[in-house]
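Q: Given only this backbone (248 positions), what sequence would you predict?
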């Protein structure tokens, strides 16, 4: 199990939650090392933004341990699975992360990491579990209204977390095979985007012939854009997997 693995997991997460942020389109608004002011105030009532910016490493670990690691029972999960579930929980809330794990594990979905969920997770191949939970995470962020703003960064982070998680439970040949599969998928999708783009243009021109040309073109752009983003996602996965395979 991953008991005592929080420092290694947290180091990976903080690589993406590193500094101060106050983006107007980020629902969390002011954050430091991924910790929002609202969350910090639960530990330090009345804390200001200045206090949050000066948060200590000890406070950071305490908040992540209490609010996320313990919630997903990181100490009871297999190494690698712990990182995947924890990082998802940090980004989208522990309950959502746990639900994704429960869906993959085939147990009741209630967002609570109980004994049945832990037992089911332990009974599944870690590599498969990691891939499927990260796929669900990607599907969730794609459904968010802010995906157009943050999507590329989110998908890059998910690809990296998946790759690192896999590197903790995989051999070098397995990681190299994963990277190759992702590259092949990206290339296939790239070719499909070109073909589909042409087909979509012809199809939309036929079915939407009564609409202005600009509308038809816009529809085609959306269709092709979705396909191209799938190429980007698998290219990101391939790059992240190749990196950890090289370091293995």
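A: Predicted residues:
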């Amino acid at each position: 199990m991953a008991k005592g693995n929080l420092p290694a997991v947290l180091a990976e997460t903080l690589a993406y939650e590193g500094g101060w942020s106050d983006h107007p389109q980020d629902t969390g608004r002011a954050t430091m090392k991924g910790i929002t002011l609202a969350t910090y105030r639960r530990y330090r009532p009345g804390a200001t933004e200045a206090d949050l910016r000066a948060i200590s490493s000890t406070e950071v670990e305490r908040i992540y341990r209490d609010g996320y690691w313990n919630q997903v029972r990181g100490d009871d999960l297999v190494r690698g699975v712990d990182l995947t579930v924890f990082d998802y929980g940090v980004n989208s809330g522990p309950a959502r992360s746990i639900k994704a794990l429960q869906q993959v594990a085939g147990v009741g979905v209630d967002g609570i990491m109980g004994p049945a969920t832990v037992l089911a997770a332990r009974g599944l191949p870690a590599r498969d579990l990691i891939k499927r939970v990260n796929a669900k995470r990607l599907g969730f962020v794609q459904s968010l209204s802010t995906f157009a703003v943050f999507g590329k960064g989110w998908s890059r982070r998910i690809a990296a977390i998946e790759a690192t998680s896999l590197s903790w439970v995989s051999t070098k040949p397995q990681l190299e095979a994963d990277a190759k599969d992702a590259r092949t998928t990206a290339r296939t999708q790239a070719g499909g985007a070109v073909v589909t783009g042409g087909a979509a243009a012809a199809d939309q021109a036929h079915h939407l012939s009564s609409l202005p040309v600009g509308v038809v073109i816009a529809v085609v752009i959306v269709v092709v854009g979705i396909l191209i983003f799938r190429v980007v996602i698998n290219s990101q996965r391939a790059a992240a997997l190749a990196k950890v395979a090289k370091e293995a």
